[in-house]
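Before relying on records like the one below, remember that each one covers exactly one chain. Contacts with other chains, cofactors or solvent are not represented anywhere in the record.
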Amino acid sequence: MKVFRTKFFQTFILITVAYLGIVVVISQSPADDAVAIDDKLIEMSSDNRLELLVQVTGVNPLEGTANARVLPWPNSDDVGYRLKSGWVPSQDVDLVVDSVIGASNGGSNTYSFKKDVPTGGFDVQIDEQPGAGARSDVGWYPMDKYSFEIPMSAIGTLEDGDQATLNILPLDYTKKIDTFDIHMIHGLWNDAFTTVKMDDAKSFDMAVDEFNNGQSSSVFEAVRSNSTKLLVTIILLLMITAMISVTIMTYMVVTGQRPPTLSSLTWAAALTYSLISLRGLMPGSPPIGIFVDKIFYFPALIVTLVCSLWVLVTWVRREDFQS
C-alpha cells in the first residue's frame, strides 16, 4: 500500500520499535548477586538466629534521610516464635539501631522486647552513609544516588539473668517505592570500606562472624528508577521541541516569510505556559534549580517568552489588520 511507503508512516514505525525496545530494556531486573549473597549468608549463618527484615519505605533527597521499617523475625524457638505479622520473644531482647529518629520509640535508638509479649516491628529514620558521593544531591536529578547505612546490634537476656549477644542476620524486605529503586549491600561493622561480594570468600566469613556476635551494618543504595529516567527524558525532549518549534516560527514571521497572524501569537504564548505544566510533571517533585532546569527548562522558558514577544510586536505592527 502507498501509505506504508510514506516517510510519516516509516517514522512512526521507527519510533514505535525504538520505544518498545526501550520498554523491554528498562523492564529487566538488574543482574546482580544480591539474591545469591543472601542465600549463601543464610546457609552460613547459625540456625539459632534472629533475622532482621529491613524495608525502606521512603527517601527524602532534600534532607538526605530515609524512612525504614525493621521487623525482627526469629528463626529459632530459643529466640522467639513467629506470628502472621509479628513475633513473640522467648527472652528479653534489646535491639540497638543507629538512626536519626526512632520514629516509634520516643526518639530512642534502643528497642526493648519483653519475653512472651507479642509484638511487631518498628519504624526508624536513617541518615546518609558518611562520605557520600557527589551524586548524593538532588541537583543531579534524575541521576542522583543515595546510600543509607543501618548499623544494628542485638542483645538477649538468658534465664539466669545474664545478657549475651544474639545471632542475627539482616535481610532486605524493601518493596517498590515512588521513583526509586532500592538495593541492599551487606557491609561490615568494623570495616566501612569492605562489603560482602560473591568472589570474596573472606568477606562472607567476616560478615558471619559479626552476625554471630550480634552486630550488622547494612547499606541501602537508592537510585532513580529507569521509568523515572525515561519520563524525565521525554519531558526534556518536549521542552526542546517546543523551544525549537517556536524559534523557527518566530524567525519565519519576523523575516516576513510567514504572516504574523493572531493564531501564531496564541500558539507562541501557549507554548510558554505549557512549559510550566511540563515541569510540574517531573516525578518525585524535584525542587526548582536542579541541573536539568539550568540546561533545558530555564533556556526553553526564556526563548519561548522572547519569541512570543517578537511575534506580538510583529503582529501589532501589521498594517492590513487581517488575522
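The chain has six helices and twelve strands.
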